[in-house]
């Protein structure tokens, strides 16, 4: 690493005071956080904004479906009254809100963009690299600019055999330390779902299921695990989020939305492909942050594309719900200010 990059890395903590950057694409010391004008304007006016991650674009889906889905998700968020803010690091600059050209760039880069969790942020910025942010890094940047609601497909979790590998996604620890609400379809059964929920409980994270009492398992509506909090409307979600913020709990919230019923029929076929892919990953010794992308790609091959179609459908559904939640939250805050 060049001296200047090392210097920038060492000074990152001091210079990345992003509290002022909400209203402008602000140079802060030597580090810039670029907030799209549409996003900063909405935030300053108290309008609904929905953060979106970018690993799902680079590593979660192949080109060109990744680009089509990213654009479609942004369109759904807009149609439902909120401003989309896809988050990524481009040429070393953390960006909150991407242009169509930037989305295209990221989609074409695919896995050549670095999968960037919280631990990778300083390195990607210091090297001037291109980072696709995972749930943990996206939550962090969203909270820096005060975006309370974030939509994705699924989050990472506790991996199977974690008692041997210690492989637990940093998405969970981020949920335990960053006050952002993540709307997702639960976690895939490539992970250990009961342990994921146990770990979230340990971290003090509220896990709410949308219109159900059970935690969904991404491709299927149910995991067999009950949750302690049920929400039935966007307004329920908004009240939950506002209470958590007002109590200054400091933790995130997970709102788990089951895959729409019409898309869950292939769930059981996908489940058996998941079991096969997990076995292959073990045989090939694929672990760490390479495991999730390997499993996703292999499951898609084994199901002849059915898992990708289901994945796209549930992300779009989450975008719809997440946008409504963000709008309900903005409305709730406006009503509180008036009274
Ligand atoms: O169904 C999915 N789960 C998870 C991911 C991505 O993988 C990350 C978790 O990776 P890991 O397990 O290495 O922490 C998530 O934050 C998200 O960006 C994804 O694309 N699709």
Describe the 3D structure.
Keywords: Glycosidase, Hydrolase, Lyase, Manganese, Metal-binding. One of its GO terms (cellular component) is peroxisome. InterPro entries: Indigdn_synthA-like, PsuG. Its EC number is 4.2.1.70. GO terms for molecular function: metal ion binding; pseudouridylate synthase activity; RNA glycosylase activity. By secondary structure, the chain is an alpha/beta fold. It folds into two domains: 1-146, Indigoidine synthase domain (Indigoidine synthase fold); 148-339, Indigoidine synthase fold (3-Layer(aba) Sandwich). 47% of the residues lie in helices and 14% in strands. The chain has 14 helices and twelve strands. It has helices spanning 3-15, 37-44, 55-58, 65-79, 100-109, 121-126, 135-144, 162-165, 170-175, 193-202, 234-246, 267-283, 291-302, 306-338, and strands spanning 26-28, 31-35, 49-52, 83-90, 93-96, 114-116, 131-133, 149-151, 181-184, 206-210, 229-231, 253-256. Strands 1, 2, 3, 4, 5, 6, 7, 8, 9, 10, 11 and 12 form a twelve-stranded mixed beta sheet that branches. Helix 4 (65-79) runs parallel beside helix 14 (306-338), helix 11 crosses helix 14 and helix 12 (267-283) crosses helix 13 (291-302). The longest helix has 33 residues, at 306-338. The model is unreliable at 1-28 (pLDDT under 50). The site of pseudouridine-5'-monophosphate has 18 residues, from helix 3 and helix 9.
